[in-house]
What we know:
This protein is an alpha+beta fold. It has helices at residues 2-14, 62-70, 93-115, 159-166, 253-264, 293-302, 315-321, 334-343, and strands at 18-31, 36-39, 50-61, 76-79, 121-132, 147-151, 154-155, 175-180, 182-184, 190-192, 196-200, 226-235, 239-242, 275-277, 280-281, 287-288, 307-310, 327-330. A six-stranded mixed sheet has the order 4-1-3-14-17-18, sandwiched between helices. Strands 5, 6, 7, 8, 11 and 12 form a six-stranded antiparallel sheet that branches. A hairpin with a 5-residue loop joins strand 9 (182-184) and strand 10. The N and C termini lie far apart (78 Å). Residues 359-363 have low confidence and may be disordered.
Amino acid sequence: MCVLVVVVVALVASMFIHLDEYSITPGYSQPVGPLIKVSGHPHDVARRNILLTDVYLTQLTVLQWVIAKLHPAHEELISGRYLTDPGVPTSELIAQGYLEMYDSQNAAKVAAMDALDYPVSGEHAGATVTAVGSKSPSYSILNVADRIVGARGHAVTDVCSLVVALHGATPGRTVPLEVQRATISPAGVITYAKAAAVRVPTEAVPSNVPSTDCPGAPKRTVWLGVALEDAMQWQFPIHVTINTADIGGPSAGLAMTLGIIDALSRGSLTGHARIAATGTIDPSGNVGDVGGVAEKTVAVEQAGARVFLVPPQEYGVALGAASGGLKVVSVSTLAQALAAIKRFGGNVPPVPITQPASTAKRS
């Protein structure tokens, strides 16, 4: 009887004890068109032939891990230490994913409108926090997505200007920052408050911290313990919003870009063929690597896609996961993606619904 009680207790515990292990499983491959809303500008009704594909990332309990090991099926197991940078807790994963989606949406708008010759302008708007080390002086004071716009009385327009502004500060003392606090809704929408004063502790720069890549910047004298990226403020000629509620990460960048082009151009971009895409996008239209492509391939096939556009790094993975009826195409730029769509009968180059105010390309 005692043995039975112990077994039952162990089984129950295994259902609630979480490990630092995660599973990646096929998510949902859905049309990106209905997620895109265009305001104050002529556009086509939402089309459904370009697919956005995601995966589910789940932290595993002991029992789930055992089941996954015994019955692996379209599932990838990954340790939490591979999902974040060293010293960054996995509790930041959700916020990081939503920040990546925020950046990805803006990059998709820039790349799409640039492809259609609509004029887009942008300016540096501060330094955005992308990660906070659990043992860093900034932990619990600065958060993922917060935007630093001032330091020690100097304006901060990007990461390098923050490095310059902090030069000469004394380790162990607090430094005054001007920070636009980020609020992330449960669905992942990021909004920013007005800049407010925040004092942040500092430490001496650890020996294992690499030197700054800022050209001509002085050597750092203090360490905040955060990872940063340049914040950008974009001015778009057309108001476009993308509803990616509960979807994090940057991997939908290419699909969102194609969806925006489809919405703002005449005729069906894909020629009514169902085409799925995965890959990050940057404002210049470069397509980057993503994870979970084997699981995404399963979801894409289940959605009935004819073609799957993937980054070159993941071509072999997608090809190996495809059952044979899906055409996998490697693309490293938006231009290559559009060329591939044209080969499969799409309407490329796309023609904007209205003539842009200026057809001059940005240099």
